[in-house]
Write a structure and sequence with these properties.
Lipocalin; ten-stranded antiparallel beta barrel; three-stranded antiparallel sheet; elongated
């Protein structure tokens, strides 16, 4: 009897172990998160397309565009220790419209989708701080230029480098294209999320021009490369800079949606890109003299860098499905969006004739504002 019970126990143990191994082989040890594509029930059989259109009202700012200092009379001109006050002028950046267009396709597999999005934006300056003038008497009062030719190696101490008028202008044209593949799924009943990865490409064109007018007749010397010691009386100066850039690199994004009820949701989205960037720059300095002659320096430069880009979006979404099958519908989103592009101003500022190539500004580009989006699911 004891032997029968022993063999029975061993048999049950062997059968249990076999069943356990069989379950481990056929049942993966993970939990599958349910897909959460909005109003796209038909994606389970054949997939479904969707389209989004966005209107932008953004402000773009580029670092390193300070173009002049304005000097003021000393507080006590009778004091033997005279100290001047100066104010640095940075352009005021305007708010401008732009747009985004996105085409997407949900796939007939587990909530995955493909999408491509084109963004266009144009940035420039307002009229508030880009055009101003100053008196140039007594000596030392006026507009001090922050962009001037490296060919001018020195200035006479009797004629300080000041102008009566200054004007700056900057424009930006940016086109970007995002391609990605992602999955939209439920983390819980109160949190939906889309993880995606893909590519980002972009083209940008910047132009920055600064004019300085009506100096007191700045007395300067040409550098050793051009007739050293030849004195000049400079009246007007112009600095112009153009930068054309193309970018391409990987992009990863995470979109989250927090349902609030009655079709409303809070959204919080983010993305990061690291792009290989090719820069083509042209810099030109032009000095006009009292003898109606001019001295022009034109400099070209090409180089490559890695450009990190961060995108973030926070706002509200409202969605509705138009039929009982829930296979088509629409969403309306209003959000605050910002983008930060590292090192997008490579204009070289000259501080001394001993550094003829100047110092790279390396100013960052930031864009921020409101984005309103309409999405239609088919």
């Amino acid at each position: 009897m004891k032997k029968i019970l022993l063999f029975s126990a061993l048999g049950i143990s062997s059968l249990t172990a076999a069943n356990h191994n069989h379950l481990n082989e056929e049942t993966p040890n993970y939990a599958l998160l349910a897909p959460a594509q909005p109003c796209s029930a038909s994606f389970k059989e054949k997939g479904a397309p969707y389209i989004t259109a966005s209107g932008l009202l953004w402000q773009s700012k580029l670092g390193g565009l300070e173009f002049a200092e304005k000097s003021f009379n000393p507080a006590d001109p009778n004091n033997t220790d005279i100290s001047f006050k100066e104010k640095i002028f940075t352009p005021d950046f305007s708010w401008n419209p732009g747009f985004k267009v996105c085409l997407g396709q949900t796939l007939p597999y587990d909530g995955w989708d493909l999408k491509t999005q084109w963004t266009y934006y144009h940035g420039n300056l307002t009229n508030l701080k880009r055009d101003f003038d100053s008196v140039i008497q007594p000596t030392g009062i006026g507009i001090v230029p922050l962009w001037y030719s490296p060919l001018i190696s020195s200035f006479s101490s009797n004629t300080p480098m000041v102008y009566e008028k200054a004007r700056a202008d900057w424009t930006l044209n940016l086109n970007s294209l995002d391609l990605d593949m992602g999955r939209f799924f439920f983390i819980s009943k109160s949190l939906l999320m889309r993880l995606a990865t893909g590519l980002k490409g972009a083209l940008s064109h910047q132009r920055y021009v600064v004019h300085y007018h009506n100096s007191t007749g700045i007395l300067g010397n040409l550098g050793s490369g051009l007739s050293d010691g030849n004195e000049l009386l400079i009246l007007d100066s112009k600095f112009s800079y153009q930068q054309k850039t193309w970018y391409v690199g990987p992009r990863s994004s995470i979109d989250s949606k927090w349902p609030l009820g009655y079709g409303f949701s809070l959204i919080a989205n983010g993305a990061f890109s690291l792009m290989y960037s090719h820069y083509n720059t042209i810099t030109q300095f032009q000095e006009n003299t009292i003898a109606n002659s001019s001295i022009t320096l034109k400099r070209k430069e090409r180089f490559h860098l890695l450009t990190p880009v961060i995108e973030a979006q926070l706002g509200f979404d409202w969605g509705i499905c138009f039929n009982k099958k829930e296979d088509w519908g629409a969403n309306l989103t209003i959000a605050y969006e910002c983008q930060y592009w590292w090192s997008q101003n490579h204009a070289r500022r000259n501080y001394s004739s001993y550094v003829p190539q100047g110092i790279d500004s390396r100013g960052d580009l930031q864009m921020q504002g409101l984005t309103a989006t309409v999405r239609v699911n088919f």
